[in-house]
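Appendix B. Worked example

We walk through a single record from start to finish. Start with the input: the chain for Probable translation initiation factor IF-2, Halorubrum ejinorense, length 597.
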Amino acid sequence: MTDHTHADTLRTPIVAVLGHVDHGKTSLLDKIRGSAVSEGEAGAITQHIGATDIPLSTISGMAGELIDPDDFDLPGLLFIDTPGHHSFSTLRARGGALADIAVLVVDVNDGFQPQTEEAIDILRRTGTPFVVAANKVDTTPGWNPQEGEPIQRSMEAQSERAKSMLDENLYEIIGQLSDAGFSADLYWRVQDFQKNIGVVPLSALTGEGVPDLLTVLMGLSQRFMKEEMAIDVAGPGEGTVLEVKDERGFGATIDTVVYDGVIRNGDTIVVGGQNEPIVTEIRALLQPRPLAEIRTEKQFEKVAEVGAAAGVKIAAPDLDKAMAGAPVRVVRDRSVDEVVEEVKAELAEIEVDTADNGVVVKADTLGSLEAMANALREAEVPILRAEVGDIAPRDIAVAETANQDEHKAILGFNVDLLQNAESDLENADVKLFKNEVIYQLVEDYERYVEEKQRAQQETVLDKVVRPARFRILPDHTFRQNDPAVVGVEIISGTLQNNRNVGYFEGNEFERVGGLSGIQKQGEDVDEARSGERVSIAIDGPTVGRGIEEGDTLWTEVPEKHAKILEQELKEEITADEREALQGYLDTRRKRDPFWGK
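Next comes the structure step. The output line below is what the pipeline stores for this chain.
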């Protein structure tokens, strides 16, 4: 055993690769791995669970004259394969992001897409430094591929036309970054990487520009992260769960990225769980057999210990309730209770503020749960309960207890509906929203709420007294009283049957009676619109006493109704109804300025 008493050592920076679904994240990782292998450095590349470690010597071999290995004392780069989801960019390590640095892959022809926006949002929130890989430059019409070359040399080999088409696409991306609040430029023009984002044009297919990407990542890590890369080599290991997986022969295991210290077989560890932190003992530490392609190869080998930074699969009892995104801590020479409290405290940072009413949120990882909570907070949607995991019967039961109809909803991000919950959902008054893109999930829900509110407004509108102003036509008295029947013309608004009507004497409203009928061309109708002429029956007054031909009358709008019309339904009523309402309110308010407010 070597003596680890010397000062802290620098660990490999952890690099996350994010981006929209088909913009080439996986092929870029495969290219970096593949080129490394073809450099004849096969032995140097160690495959990890969920990660690939590329040592400095390999990187400098691939980057050629772009890198002088003597400029670096960091050991290389550890690329983590965020399993299928960009939400992994919110994987955490002690309150910060797990990734030290990120690559945002954008298809140069396609620009920003929903998941790109989302990844940017997460990078902004976690403050993770990043580089943009503008992928697929080889698809530029007329492109002449220069396998594996640095991008500037490759660009010199292109026709003017291809070069200018590529430039146009690159500037489009730089513009989109600027819209998102980041000042960016082609990486060779960036003076200060702390203030500007470098854009690296490349092709995961031909390898052009890949040397540049590695160079920029190494340079950034070396310059800005050296302090953070200092770790306690022999200290108790700390890591973050990437995925919880069942493995034949091992039961539930956790794929973990270790970012500090050492984890040994037999260690007691504390892992964040769905209810309480899990305390368990490591039965096996597993890594893929050398150079086996991680995604297909199931043959692991057991290792005695793993030091940071590394990806490893941990097999131990009781891990089935572990959560993706949760902390993993080795206990070693401290009390278990102390470590359990540490894990609880770290999970509490991620806990979502819940309200007494609101929607139920389920997500696949703690990171995505947190991102969902942030998105809902911005949309001002309250959350009743937020948890990691698939949608279970009790989620439906909880959602049903919401006291507002629009909150009887479950928003599921990247999760499934468990089979035993399907019939519960069918029989419950609960709406389920599922999506793989956070902001689309929130938008779907907001659209649903708007539609619900519009339907509610329509029912309110049916009950509200609508404003109307109308005039009794000269020579149109058909009956003097009991009821008085007269011909009228509606000047503005909607005249409804069974409403009280009256007129203004000065600024004082005088009620004259109630409508008991409206006839249009001899037919009974419920209402008459602005501009129409109808005959109406009014209970109460006598023509010649109380009302006269030529009088202007108004529907009497109760104060509460006037307030609803002015404050909530103004957009829902017609322009002439607004005009009638305004005239009515203005006159009422001459006497009482606060009427209907």
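Two observations about the output. Confidence is low (pLDDT under 50) at residues 1-7. The two ends are 81 Å apart (CA to CA).
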